Amino acid sequence: MSDSTPIQRLADQAAAKTPPRVVKRIRGLSDRAIAWAFITPTILLLLAINIFPLIWTIQLSFTNYRANRPNAEVENVGIQNYERILTDSDIWFAMQATAHFVFWTIALQTLIGFSLAYLIDRKFRGHAFWTTIILIPMMLSPAVVGNFWRFLYQPQIGLFNYIVSFFTGLPPSSFEMLGTVNLAPWSIIIVDTWMWTPYVMLICLAGLRSIPDYIYEAAEVDRASKWRQFWTITIPMAAPFIMLAVLFRGIENFKMFDMVNLLTGGGPGSTTEVASITLKREAFEKWRTGYSSAFAIILFVAVFGLANIYVKALNKVKNR
Amino acid sequence: MMDAHEPPALPPQKRFTPRSIAEGLATLLIAAGFIMLMQPFAMVLYTYSFVVLLAGTVLFIVGSKFPG
Question: Which residue ranges form the domains of chain A, and what is each CATH number?
Answer without folding.
Answer: 6-60 (no CATH), 88-319 (1.10.3720.10)
